[in-house]
Amino acid sequence: MMKSIGTETCIAAEVSLEDFTQARRHGEHCHLVRLGDPLNYVMWGLPVSHRAYRTLSALFTDAEQRGDFQDVFKRYRPDDQCSMKDSEESEDDEDVGLAVEDTAGPVFFVGVIVICGACCQIVPACLKRCLR
Predict the structure, then answer these.
(1) Rounded distance, CA 96 to CA 94, Å?
(2) Contact 113, 125 (CB under 8 A)
(3) What gap in Å lies between CA 96 and CA 27, rounded to an integer?
(4) Interior CA angle at 25 toward 21 and 31, to 5°?
């Protein structure tokens, strides 16, 4: 459905903020413009004990009435690739992706963990053969 928004088929539409953000995060549908705040938010939750329910419910209600949720939604809005393409930094032909140097540390640690795991599997088998 997102592909047809902004074309002759569909001039405007209402989509979930998650779909819109996900598309823009990957640099897709940069021609679309978000108008205003979402119509509603779906709050997800998880089960809690009956003893903690009233306390947590009161805390979340107070936070919602103070506007803390709106502040968090505004403060921690994820960056999208479309705004990075439009910014002055991307005019300098800087790549917004990760370079090899950025991934060297995690790749090194994963390699060490894989080697340690392989040694933990191989050493006991070699000891069993030697003791026979």
Answers:
(1) 6
(2) no
(3) 11
(4) 75
Cβ atoms of 84 and 90 within 8 Å: the answer is: yes
Residue ranges for the chain with pLDDT beneath 50: 88-90, 92-93
In a 13 Å sphere around the CA of 110, the CA atoms on its Cβ side amount to 5
SS3 10: strand
Q: In this predicted structure, what is the pLDDT of residue 88?
A: 46
**34-46 b/e (C-beta count within 10 Å ≥ 16 → b):** eeeeeeeeeeeee
Distance CA 40, CA 20 (A): 14
Burial of 90 (0-12, 13-18, 19+ CB in 10 A): middle
CB 81 within 8 A of CB 27: yes
pLDDT for 83 equals 67
Take residue 53 and report the two structure tokens written for it.
Answer: 């329910």
